[in-house]
Structures are given as structure tokens and as C-alpha cells.
From TrEMBL:
Biased composition (Basic and acidic residues): 1-10, 28-38
A Pfam family per the record: Tctex-1
GO molecular function: dynein intermediate chain binding
Protein name according to UniProt: Dynein light chain Tctex-type family member 5
Any Gene Ontology biological process: microtubule-based movement
Highest classification ranks of the organism: Eukaryota, Metazoa, Chordata, Craniata, Vertebrata
Organism of this sequence: Seriola lalandi dorsalis
Region (Disordered): 1-41
Sequence similarity: Belongs to the dynein light chain Tctex-type family.
Length: 177
């Protein structure tokens, strides 16, 4: 069987949940009586949902709400308190190390994002950025640019510093019309 046809049949078997076992591979075997038979055995399995290469997600269609602005504003003060709490609790007693800071920025981003999403502010997209660096007397400027609607989009930011490192966390809230 040619390679494209073989790949297609394997994908079809994978979708139906049946895969040939390791020993069979479509080989014809002999019985003890001398007759030949097809010895294709199958093994059933179930993949995790959402991890299929062949599945194509259907687009979600949403109806117009004709809502031009947010009903509930993004709570900048509450988010600033979250940033202060998370940065202080994670970085208070730490010393700067390169590998540690790479892992810690991801962890802090995930924690902040989860706590902001727990506020359940509808129709806002949340972007979280965290920077951790070593304090050695240098200066640093962090800039960002994006398409912004000043009437509904906003951000919250907090800076933390101890004897060996600094941390800056920023949460951008972009209103989704």
C-alpha cells in the first residue's frame, strides 16, 4: 500500500478507536491445520478529548448584542491588590537566580491570570506580563504598544523590589465588543 493511502487508513482507524496490535500489521498467518486466515486483531482505546490532529473545531457563532461599552468596568484597584499580594508572597524572601526566575515568571503569570479571571469580569480579554530581574544598580524601562480604546480598555501594574531582585507585573484588560 502506498504511503499516503496507508497514512489515511491509519488515521481512519485512529478515529474509530481501533488500531492494529503490534504483532498483526495485516500479516496472514497459518493455522495448525494448514489453512490461512487473516490475523488482524484490534485494540480499542480512547484519546483525551481535544487532542486530536484530525478534529477541526467548528467556529462559534455569536449573535449581536449591540452592546457598545462594558456594563461593568474593569476593577483596577482590585487587580492592583492581586498583583501586590502575588508578587509579595512569591518574591519576598527570594534571591535572584536565572533559571529560577524563568520558571517563576511563568508561575506568577498563571497565578495572576487565574485570580483575575476569578473576578468574573465579562467581555474583557486579559493579558498578563511579568518581568523579574537582578538588582545591580542598573536602570530599566519597559514599554508596550497596542491598539487601544481609552474609553473601555485599561491596565493595572505593580512593581516589587527586595535586596537582590525586582519584579514588575502588568495586567492589560482589553474590552471585547
Amino acid at each position: 500500500m502506498s504511503d499516503p493511502l496507508k497514512d489515511k487508513s491509519q488515521r481512519k482507524e485512529k478515529r474509530t478507536g481501533k488500531v492494529p496490535s503490534e504483532g498483526s500489521h495485516g500479516v496472514r498467518g497459518k493455522e495448525t491445520t494448514g489453512k490461512t486466515k487473516d490475523s488482524i486483531s484490534t485494540v480499542s482505546f480512547m484519546d483525551e478529548l481535544g487532542h486530536h490532529d484530525d478534529n477541526v473545531r467548528m467556529p462559534v457563532t455569536m449573535e449581536n448584542t449591540y452592546q457598545m461599552g462594558p456594563y461593568k468596568r474593569f476593577p483596577v484597584l482590585a487587580v492592583t491588590d492581586i498583583l501586590k499580594d502575588v508578587l509579595t508572597s512569591y518574591l519576598q524572601e527570594e534571591k535572584y537566580e536565572v533559571e529560577w526566575s524563568q520558571k517563576m515568571t511563568k508561575t506568577i503569570c498563571e497565578v495572576i491570570r487565574a485570580r483575575v479571571k476569578d473576578l468574573m469580569i465579562p467581555r474583557y480579554k486579559i493579558v498578563v506580563l511579568v518581568h523579574i530581574g537582578q538588582l545591580t544598580g542598573q536602570s530599566m524601562q519597559i514599554n508596550s504598544r497596542c491598539l487601544w480604546d481609552a474609553s473601555s480598555d485599561t491596565f493595572a501594574s505593580y512593581s516589587f523590589k527586595n535586596s537582590s531582585l525586582y519584579g514588575v507585573a502588568t495586567v492589560y484588560a482589553i474590552y471585547f465588543e
